[in-house]
Design a protein that fits this description.
This protein is 41% helix and 11% strand. The strands form six sheets. The chain has a seven-stranded mixed β-sheet with strand order 11-2-3-4-5-8-17. Among the domains are: 224 residues, Anaerobic Ribonucleotide-triphosphate Reductase Large Chain (Alpha-Beta Barrel); 231 residues, Alpha-Beta Barrel (Anaerobic Ribonucleotide-triphosphate Reductase Large Chain). It is of the alpha/beta class and 723 residues long. It contains 28 helices and 19 strands. The longest helix is centred in the last third of the chain and has 29 residues. Strand 4, helix 12 and strand 5 form a beta-alpha-beta unit.
Length: 723
C-alpha cells in the first residue's frame, strides 16, 4: 500500500477549468475542460488514492478499518466479487468533464478517517452499490453494475453514498408528515421532525388541519394561535437537529389556500416581516383545489373555512374534505365559521411572494387526486414537490402513543440518465434492474423513529424513478426545447418508462405473491388505469423520434392489454413508481443536464466553498449543438410547462417543475407584455400558473428570478431530497 501527497500550490486543474470561461478567437475553449480533467486525475486523484497489491488486500483493508458492510460481503463468494470487478474494469469508465470527477471525489468517494486519502474510486462505489442492492443475487448485482457503470441509472444521493458502507447513514432522506388539530399530534410531528432531520431528512409537513389563529379552544374564544407559531417551532427544530453541525435540517410546511391563516402563512417569508413571525429557513407550499381557479376566473369573493368547524361537521380532518365539491355547502352551512377575501387578492399575494422569495410551491391538489390511481387521498407533498402519495391521519393519545396508526411517506428515489438510457440494448431489463434496486431501498429502510412513516412505507412499497438529461438529449439530437419533436420524444420516453416500471412491479408481485396495501381498491385492479393506453395511439408521430425509437420495443395496444390482464390477476408490488425529483450535484457526476429542465448557461458557473468558481460545459456542447442550448431565462416558460405536462401524462406522482423568470422580460417573449411594462409582474406569474393548471401540471416548485444586475434569487437548492 502506498500513499501519495498533494501540494495545493502546484495543482493546475482549477486554472485550466477557469479558462473555459475565457473565450479565445471568439470561441469557447472546450478543450481546456479535458485538460483540467486530466490534470485533476494526475495531480489529485492518483497520488491521493490508497493503492493495494490485490483486490483481496483491498477488501481486507476495508474490513479491518470498518469501511465495508461485512454482512453484504458474506452474501457473495469472493470469486464473484472478482468477476464483478473484472467486468467493471473492462468497461473502461472515464469521466467526461472536470466537474464530474471533482464532484465525485469531493462529495461521494469514501475517504480515510482523517480525510487525507481516497479509499475508493468511481468503479469501487459502483461495485458497492451493485453488491448492496443485489442482496446476494449475482445476476441482479451484475445487472446493476452494468446500469451504473454506463450511467443509465443513478441512485439518489443518500442511497449511492451509503450503499455497502459499515458506518452508513440512511438510504432515504425525504419524508412527508401531517398533523391533526390537537396538541398531542403537534408534539408528535415536532418530535418526528427532530428525528428525521437528525438522519438528514428533508421533511414536508401539512398544517391545514390546525385551527386558525383566534379560533376558540374548549369554548374560550380567541384562544388558538394558528399555524405560524407551529411553523416557528418546526423551523427551530430543524435548526437544532442539524446532523451534528454538518448542515441545517430542511423542511417545508404546506397550507391549503382555503385555510383562514393563508395570508399570515405567506407573510412569514416577507423580508420586512417581524422576527416573531418571519421564517428564514423553512420552505413554504400551498395546496390549491380547482375551486380556487374557478373563483379567480370569475373574480369572485372567496371564503376561508375554520378547520375545526369543518372537521366537526364532516367527521374527518380538513385535509380530507373535497373543497371543490363541498365549497357551496360549506359556504351555506352556518355552523362553519368562514372568512371572506377576494380570490384575486390571494392570487396576487402568492405571485408577490414568488417574486420576492421563490415561494410558495404550488400543489394543484385536485389535479393530483384526479390522476391518483391508488385508493385514498393525496393531501401534501415533500420538500421538492414531486412526491405525491396517499396518507392517512394518525390519532395520538396523551402518552404520545398511536391510538390509530396512520400512514405517512418516505421517498425512495433514483433517476435514469435519458441520453444513456436511449443507448441501452434492452430497455425492459434496464428498468427492471432499477425497480429492483429501488424496491430494495423501500424494503430495507428501517424508519421506526417515526412509526407512521414506517407504516406507510411497508404498506405501499412506493418508489420514485425519475430522469435527468432531457435538455442534453434534445441538444445532442438537434431538437429545440419544447418544439414538436421534443414533445414527441418526451411523450414516448415517459410512456416507455411507465410501461416498463409497471411490467417490473407486476413481475415482483408475481414472484412474492404480494401486492401493495389495498391494491384491490386501486384503478390498476379494476383496469380503468389502462384505458387511455388502449383507446388511443401513443406511438411517436415525427420521423426523427420514430427513428430514435426504432431500436426499442415501443409498447403496442396489445402489450398494454396483456399488461392490464397480468396486473389485474397478479397485482403490483409498488403503489407508486415514478417521480421527477430535482437532480443536484449528481447530475454533474453523470455528465448530464439537470432533471427535465433547460440549462441556465452553456458554461455553468458554480461557486464552491473554499475553492472559488468552477465551470461546467453543457454535455455534448459543440458547434453543432450550440444553437439548441437556449438558456432557461430566455425561454418562454410555456415551453417548459408543455414539456413537463407531456411527461406528466405518464408519471403517477409529480415533478419538481421550476419556473425561470427575468426581472426584465425579453421583448416578444410573452404576447401579453406587448404595450405593457417589460418588468416581471405578478400578472406574469398568475398567467403562467393558470397555464400550468390547464395543462394538467400537478405541482410548481421554485420560481427563480434572474435580476438586471445578473444575480439569481429565489434559489435554495434542496440537498435533502434531490437525486
Amino acid at each position: 500500500m502506498s500513499l501519495g501527497t498533494l501540494d495545493l500550490d502546484k495543482v493546475s486543474y482549477f486554472d485550466l477549468n477557469n479558462e473555459l470561461n475565457i473565450p479565445k478567437d471568439n470561441s469557447i475553449q472546450l478543450g481546456k475542460d479535458k485538460e483540467a480533467l486530466d490534470a485533476f486525475i494526475r495531480e489529485n486523484v492518483v497520488p491521493n488514492t490508497l493503492q493495494f497489491d490485490s483486490l483481496r488486500d483491498r477488501f481486507n483493508y476495508l474490513i479491518v478499518h470498518d469501511f465495508v458492510d461485512q454482512k453484504m460481503l458474506q452474501q457473495y463468494s469472493f470469486n464473484f466479487i472478482t468477476r464483478l470487478y473484472d467486468y467493471l474494469k473492462a468497461q473502461d469508465f472515464q469521466f467526461k468533464s472536470f466537474m464530474a470527477a471533482y464532484k465525485f471525489y469531493a462529495q461521494y468517494a469514501v475517504k480515510t478517517n482523517d480525510s487525507e486519502y481516497y479509499v475508493e474510486n468511481y468503479i469501487d462505489r459502483i461495485a458497492m452499490n451493485a453488491l448492496f442492492y443485489g442482496a446476494g443475487k449475482e445476476e441482479l448485482a451484475m445487472n446493476l453494475a452494468d446500469e451504473m457503470v454506463h450511467q443509465r441509472y443513478q441512485p439518489a444521493t443518500p442511497s449511492f453514498l451509503n450503499a455497502g458502507r459499515s458506518r452508513r447513514g440512511e438510504l432515504v432522506s425525504c419524508f412527508i408528515l401531517q398533523t391533526t388539530d390537537d396538541m398531542n399530534a403537534i408534539g408528535r410531528v415536532i418530535n418526528s421532525a427532530l428525528q428525521l432531520s437528525k438522519i438528514g431528512g428533508g421533511v414536508g409537513i401539512n398544517l391545514s388541519n390546525l385551527r386558525e389563529a383566534g379560533a376558540p379552544i374548549k369554548g374560550i374564544s380567541n384562544a388558538a394561535s394558528g399555524v405560524v407559531p407551529v411553523m416557528k417551532l418546526l423551523e427551530d427544530s430543524f435548526s437544532y437537529s442539524n446532523q451534528m453541525g454538518q448542515r441545517n435540517g430542511a423542511g417545508v410546511t404546506y397550507l391549503s389556500v382555503f385555510h383562514p391563516d393563508i395570508m399570515s402563512f405567506l407573510a412569514t417569508k416577507k423580508e420586512n416581516a417581524d422576527e416573531k413571525v418571519r421564517v428564514k429557513t423553512l420552505s413554504l407550499g400551498v395546496t390549491v383545489p380547482d375551486k380556487f381557479y374557478d373563483l379567480i376566473r370569475s373574480n369572485a369573493d372567496m371564503f376561508l373555512f375554520s378547520p375545526y368547524d369543518v372537521e366537526r361537521e364532516y367527521g374527518e380532518p380538513f385535509n380530507y374534505i373535497d373543497i371543490t365539491a363541498e365549497y357551496d355547502n360549506m359556504v351555506a352551512n352556518p355552523k362553519i365559521k368562514k372568512y371572506k377575501i377576494r380570490a384575486r387578492d390571494l392570487e396576487n399575494e402568492i405571485s408577490k411572494m414568488q417574486q420576492e422569495s421563490g415561494y410558495p410551491y404550488v400543489i394543484n391538489i385536485d389535479t393530483v387526486n384526479a390522476a391518483n390511481p391508488i385508493h385514498g387521498k393525496v393531501i401534501s407533498s415533500n420538500l421538492c414537490s414531486e412526491i405525491l402519495q396517499v396518507q392517512k391521519a394518525s390519532e395520538i393519545d396523551n402518552e404520545q402513543q398511536y391510538v390509530t396508526m396512520g400512514s405517512d411517506v418516505s421517498c425512495n428515489l433514483g433517476s435514469t440518465n435519458i441520453v444513456n438510457m436511449m443507448a441501452t440494448t434492452d430497455f425492459a431489463r434496464s428498468v427492471e434492474t432499477m425497480m429492483r434496486a429501488l424496491t430494495f431501498v423501500s424494503d430495507n429502510s428501517d424508519l421506526d423513529i417515526v412509526p407512521s412513516v414506517q407504516n406507510g412505507n411497508r404498506e405501499l412499497h412506493a418508489v420514485g424513478l425519475g430522469a435527468m438529461g432531457l435538455h442534453a438529449f434534445f441538444a445532442k439530437n438537434h431538437m429545440y426545447y419544447g418544439d414538436e419533436e421534443a414533445l414527441d420524444f418526451t411523450n414516448a420516453y415517459f410512456l416507455m418508462l411507465n410501461y416498463y416500471t409497471l411490467l417490473a412491479s407486476n413481475k415482483i408481485a408475481k414472484e412474492r405473491g404480494e401486492s401493495f396495501y389495498e391494491f384491490e381498491k386501486s384503478a390498476y385492479a379494476d383496469g380503468s388505469y389502462f384505458n387511455k393506453y388502449l383507446m388511443a395511439d401513443w406511438s411517436p408521430k415525427t420521423a426523427k423520434v420514430q427513428k430514435i425509437f426504432e431500436q426499442h420495443h415501443f409498447p403496442t395496444k396489445h402489450d398494454w392489454a396483456m399488461l392490464k390482464e397480468s396486473v389485474q390477476k397478479h397485482g403490483l408490488y409498488n403503489a407508486y413508481r415514478l417521480a421527477i425529483a430535482p437532480t443536484g450535484s449528481i447530475s454533474y457526476v453523470n455528465d448530464s443536464t439537470a432533471s427535465l429542465h433547460p440549462i441556465i448557461n452553456k458554461i455553468e458557473e458554480r461557486q464552491e466553498k473554499k475553492i472559488g468558481k468552477i465551470y461546467y460545459p453543457a454535455p455534448y456542447l459543440g458547434t453543432d449543438t450550440l444553437p439548441y442550448y437556449e438558456s432557461a431565462y430566455n425561454l418562454d416558460m410555456r415551453k417548459v410547462i408543455d414539456v413537463y405536462a407531456t411527461a406528466q401524462q405518464h408519471i403517477d406522482q409529480g415533478m419538481a417543475l421550476t419556473l425561470f423568470m427575468r426581472s426584465t422580460i425579453p421583448a416578444g417573449l410573452y404576447e401579453w407584455k406587448n404595450g405593457r411594462t417589460d418588468k416581471m409582474t405578478t400578472r406574469d406569474l398568475n398567467i403562467l400558473r393558470m397555464y400550468a393548471y390547464h395543462k394538467g401540471v400537478k405541482s410548481i416548485y421554485y420560481v427563480r428570478t434572474y435580476t438586471d444586475d445578473m444575480e439569481e434569487f429565489g434559489v435554495n437548492e434542496c440537498e435533502s431530497c434531490s437525486i
